[in-house]
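Notes to self after the Tuesday call (sharing in case useful).
The group wants a holo model before anyone commits to mutagenesis around the pocket. I volunteered. Ligand is arginine. Logging inputs and output together so the record is complete.
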Amino acid sequence: MKTIIEIITENVKEAFVQKGYEEKYAIVTVSNRPDLCQYQCNGALAAAKQYKTAPIKIAQEIVEHLQSSGMFKEVAAIMPGFINITLSDEFLADFINQLKSDERYGVGREQNPEKIMIDYGGPNIAKPLHVGHLRSAIIGESIKRILKYFGNQVTGDAHLGDWGTQMGLIILELKRRKPDLVYFDDNYQGEYPKEAPFTITELEEIYPAASEYSKEHPEFREEAKQVTYQLQNGHRGYTAIWNHMMEVSVTDVKRLYDALDVSFDLWKKESDVQPYIPEMVQYFKDNNYAYISEGALVVDVKEETDTREIPPCMILKSDGAALYPSTDLATIIERMKLFHPDHIIYVTDKRQELHFETVFRCARKTKLVEENTKLTHIGYGTMNGKDGKPFKTREGGVMRLDNLIKGVNDEVYKKIMESNRMDEEEAKVIAPQIGLAAIKYGDLSNQISKDYVFDVDRFTSFEGDTGPYILYTIVRIKSILAKYAELGRKAEDTRILPAASPAEEQLMLQLTKYNEMLTSAYEELAPHRICAYIYDLANVFNGFYHDTKIIAEEDVRKQSSWISLITLVQDILLTCIDLLGFKAPERM
Ligand code: ARG
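Result:
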């Protein structure tokens, strides 16, 4: 279905052509003076230069032509040459009825759907999920849903970080604490216990402790490297511990992603792709892609057009150890082999931008991907605390995701209880639903690459540009629809009548922007556009609601038209929040 701007533009184009002007001047935009008109075209001003006439004269000719169409209530030429356009009420209502009868509310599908892999997890085993991972999860999940909505075949991969020196550190720290564990007995031949020798809480405490300890004890750090090396080369006892770590950690990570309503199709790990590395290295050497620089194996990825220094892509350290780039390159090899995607998207902190730039260049140069395989890095900004510094706990430590979510839910619960909206039981169930909307909307309403301030108090407010406000609006519509159903009437398929008030007209105009907005959110991979749109939609809906006594209305035709209209508002809001990754409760 066309957007309303496209339809108006077509008409204006026709007018320009009929009057002997080039159609390129027929650019229509939403009016920047909504008090005067709904849309405007400033093309006569530009055309006047080419045709050497007064702009107002051209504008008048265009207006004269447009006036003969039934589409407009008002078209006017305004000095020095603006064209002000207002749609007829019937035409506007017609467009809204078309949106309503389309199951996608006028939104098209991708003409050339792609097979897309999206890498937006990256939790590190045995380290607690922190707020950094929160942004990957929230943004990635929303982008995945948007891409799918347009008909692409999308696979989300958690891409667990299970392959760093952190593994050796943790194993060694465990050995320092519990040297008698059977895993450390090199003579032990039997089966290892099924139960892990630690809980998730212990595991999460071990890593920071080990990391701290290693800073003061270089010999510990060296030994940890040795342990990592042994683990990576199949040491039995260490492998058994590693398996325990995986199990305990993945269970916990999955619980958290569940709470965030984030789900992955694949749970691949960095370790899965290590077997590809030796062959990859050989291939790089054989084809003269890689060379030794200061002991390390690197691939040059500089390009003549670079305006900044791009370092080479590091493949192996001088001690032969694989690095973060080599793991990502090997992952590309595996993804191409197993899934053959047209496009791979990575969602990480924007501080990893250079890493991905060098990895992508290297993958292209060495032909790990095909010429038309797209590789995209979406880098997000930092989530800051109210002090403008990266978000921390009150004590200054790294904020665990668990605690952050709990803090938000508690705040929502408090707000619900203060307003006496419902009993404790119900509030306990509803608070996490609203809390999730608060967190996700708070994040997604910002442009992805920008830093933002995580402000629990603001995000959980039921008023203003927040998730809870959007939910509140949806719940309000639901409750009107429920009351209407109690009257025993039905209206879902009623034709929507032309707007009866300025507030209703505003609501309709906002609805007309939906298909255009969602298409740009998709093309730009920009969930913040959806947030901005639904915030405006919620505002104009609430304006309409305060202005209109829907349930008390005696004219049944009017009433059912309104019910039909607000059902459309509800459905569009629900579609949007689903694309953002949260749901609305029945009550709040
Ligand atoms: N585990 C990494 C981290 O915590 C993120 C991984 C992102 N994905 C990737 N393919 N490199 O920083």
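Two things stood out.
The chain has a mean pLDDT of 95.
The chain has 20 helices and 13 strands.
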